[in-house]
Amino acid sequence: MYDLELIPINTSADEKYFNNWVQSNYSILGIVHESTLIIVKFPSEPPEQDKDDIRDFYSSLTSLNILSNPYILEEMKRKEIREAYGIQVYNFAAAASRINRLSIDPVPDHEQYRKDKSDPLNDIVDTILKGSFKTVYEKLNEFVVSEHVTIETITTYRILVASYIVSSPIDYTDIFGIKVKGGQYPEHVGDTVDATGIIANYS
User: Fold this and answer.
1) pLDDT digits (tens, 9 = 90+) for 118-165
2) Could you read off the pLDDT of 68-93 as tens digits, one per residue?
3) Does 195 map to a domain?
4) Is the pLDDT of residue 196 over 90?
5) Does residue 82 share a domain with residue 176?
6) 201 in a domain, yes or no?
């Protein structure tokens, strides 16, 4: 049996990530993590090149080399919540658009109505469905209004999106009447939004 000792401890290295890499690339008996060193146990002494490769790999690890990280897992959960809300916003807007078209007398041709009202917003809609509300906010600010998609429409959506971005981690009801789980952008919790949906000191 041979013990390969790795010194000093790399405080940026993720144990699970390192263990998985070694076990995937070498035949070993086990890995022991002690307070001052790591011991990789081999059935017999490995070649010097293998020892050097393991040492180099271990010393090169950073906090970005991970198998599981609570911060990333937490952000993934927020992303899933944002995507779910994005679907709700889309469904509400699509339903409202259809009702609006059918309420007009005479009812406008669907194809032309789509080209005028829906198609200009396709990029924003796609981004909403991805749950990327900060990007949606930025795209709304860049949007060039027209007679068909007015500043009033854009302002309404910007207020909805900005309110979500700055929301506290509590449930609330948005301006569409949708119940929302807030606080999905912790860096913006408590930021202020003006009457047109502009977030103060946005970055």
Assistant:
1) 999 999 999 999 999 999 999 999 999 999 999 999 999 999 999 999
2) 667 777 888 999 999 999 999 999 99
3) no
4) yes
5) yes
6) no
pLDDT in tens, 159-194: 999 999 999 999 999 999 999 999 999 999 999 999
- Whether residue 108 is preceded by a cis peptide bond, meaning omega within 30 degrees of 0, is no
Angle value at C-alpha 189, between 187 and 190, nearest 5 degrees? 130
Taking alpha carbons only, the member of 53, 58, 54 closest to residue 13 is: 58
Give me the amino acid identity at 104. I
> Exposed e or buried b for every residue in 13-38, given b needs 16+ CB within 10 A?
bbeebbbebbeeeeebeebeeeeeeb
Structure pTM?
Answer: 0.70
* Domain end among 11, 33, 60: 60
Range of the domain at 41: 2-60
Contacts of 131 (CB under 8 A, 6+ apart): 79, 80, 81, 82, 83, 84, 85, 86
| Torsion on CA atoms 24, 30, 34, 37, rounded to nearest 10 | -60
CA 61 to chain centre: 24
